[in-house]
Amino acid sequence: MASSSGASKVCFNSTCNQALELPRRGWLCRTGDFADLCDRCGSDFEDGKFCDTYHLNASGWRCCESCGKQIHCGCIVSFHMFILLDAGGIECLKCAKTEYILTPNPTWPSASHFLHGPAERINDISAKSWRSIAGSGPVPWRQGPNLFSAFKGHPELQVTSCSLGQSTRIDPSERFVNSWRPQEMTGNKALASRMHYDGQNNLFNDVSYQSFFHANAIPLSSLPATFVPHCQKTETGNASGIHVKRLCIPPSIGKQCSNNNGPGPSVEKQAHIPKAQGETQASHQLLPRYRPQSIDQEIQRLYGGSNTTITPLFEKVLSASDAGKIGRLVLPKKCAETYLPSISEPEGYPLVIKDLKGKDWVLQYRFWPNNNSRMYVLEGVTPYIQSMQLQAGDTVTFGRLEPEGKLVMGFRKASLAYPSDKSHELTNTRIFAHEESLKDGNAFKSRKSDGALSEVDKISIRAKRKKGGNMNGKSLKHKEEEICQLSVTLEQVQGLLQPPLANTCMVVLIDGVEFEAFQEAPIIRIPKAFSTENVGSLCSPKVEPTPEHQEHMLPMIDHENFESLKTMESVDPLADLAVHDGKASRQDCHKPGCMQLPNGTNHKSTCTCNVCLALNRPTPPPMMMHHDPEQVGTSVQNPSRSMYADIICYTQMGNSNKNHKTGPARSFENDPSRENISDSTFKSQNIDLNMQPEREEESYSVSDAMGIMSLVQESTQRYIKQQKLSVNGITYGAHKNHGL
DNA sequence: ACGTAGCATGGGC
DNA sequence: CGCCCATGCTACG
């Protein structure tokens, strides 16, 4: 262990051991502490002569491949002074800097960040094999092999994070991570690992390295050049054939990127992620509908305050198939080939992707041969889709978390979007609160934010056509208007609802959970936080919403740009179209013959699902969770069919999870909120509908889910009180039976 | 009978 | 016209 500062310490140099009065900071130890050195040793270290002076007789010296300078590679002291070349050998930092424009090694990770145990056998990999992993060609960048979770063959190493290659930046403040090399392809799986020395002749494998990255938030830009996108390969020949020596990037790209990674990025920076030139180019090569639009805003908000930024990569509007229970998300080929690792085998590899909450999801990234081409799919997305309550028409966004470089997956509800994002063709399905309409208590007015049919609409119409349906004589324009919707999360809705005035309540017990069913639709409160009137207060220091608050605010609604709030009966028109037509997939039905829509409606009279059985009626009334009588005044209700569907889902978990097949996707989240839920105001909960009783550590039980909802509701009320919002707020009457 | 995996098909761009 | 991709189809467990 490195010594901590203190007069009683002695010099960390074992050959010196001089008592320290004013210790000088030496190298960074694995503990994260710096070695305390005496003045002389400290000077030697700072001069880069420490190993030359004290370790001359030690083993582990190697020569820089470029300049021939000898470096004590087997020593932690010199750890930051060299890089491991992909082709073998080392290069001193000076040469590396010249060629890579790289910076020294990062902070040494704490020993606790390493996985202990036998290091995996290191195998060399041919340049060909490696290139098959790293990919080649004019792609923005390629992910490093550690993107691939190695857990399949190494269950003990399952907790991995994926790191993505990214543009190297020219930023002297960044540090360089030692080089790495891919591991041998084992079977069909690329168990590629970066290896690095710990300075003590130990090699750490990929997983350790990922922990290393994760723990230290090392800019991925500091990755060896083989990770670097927009790379221009420099190949050097040798006796065994061509191998990749290194990849270089145009400095201009690095410069651009460097703007994006300064310490403590400003809010502006977070909100406007500058892209590397090549990425921008690649992005423009994508079809418009796949171009990333707003993941930055969304995630920046969630990751705000940290040094983390997001580089949007691509996005996709979920089709009915994508959002169905098959659990396969078809990836646009171009996007997959551009932004995801190249795969040579159809079975592909598991990818670890973080969601917006930092939860890791392992999805199988693979392809199907198709007409001499490929169809790229992400398998096992159902838990994620369900957890995020995504439906057809919603948009899944992919981005890269920087500086960690992890692949992140966000989403955007089709019904809610950023007003600032008007340029995107999806915007015409977006909802903006129309303050005046709310104030007046008028029914919501639908107003398209732009003229063109949205991609969602197009897809929905396409889906409808494909299914042989018609538009029921409605014009597209009419359909557009129908598509206007308000879809909010369960928690959000919970916080906005009050019992209906005619409070005829029937308490229904479903799977041990009490629900209140009302004959009349509940009343929706409009928190002032969503009106322009309160915009200032929302953003004012006085009532600055915490990130947790913001998480559960109606997402995507930019309070600076409220224009209108559109609503229609249909909660998810695309899902309606896609599933309502009945043929989307039989797997979309939770029970045979029961066409449960994502919005919870349309159960057949013969439906035998729990909810229908419990209520003994084909169309259940609006329900709300049963609350403590003391909370009636601030109770929340379920106003929407969407929420009702949620409850159905939650309710059914108790039965369904028993037989639920474990999908490829798994969450590795150790959700601290499980312990601190009572303390976490507005702590967002990803309720994994794929939960299984035998995997309690990874998922919530039904009661947990309900408890969470209650807690969220309480938190909502607390938040509203904090915001000095009227509990009654502005209400508006619901029409029909669905509350909206 | 049902769920799933993989391939085939065909509409749309 | 060729490719992409949504989803239909079917063999299989």
From TrEMBL:
Would you tell me the protein name for this molecule? TF-B3 domain-containing protein
Q: Give the organism's phylogenetic lineage.
A: Eukaryota, Viridiplantae, Streptophyta, Embryophyta, Tracheophyta
**Segments of skewed composition (Basic and acidic residues):** 668-677
The residue ranges of the TF-B3 domain are: 314-415
Q: Does the keyword Iron-sulfur apply?
A: no
Q: Where is this region: Disordered?
A: 259-284, 655-685
Report keywords, A-Z: DNA-binding, Nucleus, Transcription, Transcription regulation
Pfam (any one): B3
The UniProt entry, under Gene3D superfamilies, shows: DNA-binding pseudobarrel domain
Q: Give the location in the cell.
A: Nucleus
Q: Name one GO molecular function term.
A: DNA binding
Name the GO cellular-component terms: nucleus
Cross-referenced InterPro entries: B3_DNA-bd, DNA-bd_pseudobarrel_sf, Zfn_VAL1-3_N
Among PANTHER family, the record links this protein to: B3 DOMAIN-CONTAINING PROTEIN OS07G0563300, B3 DOMAIN-CONTAINING TRANSCRIPTION FACTOR VAL3
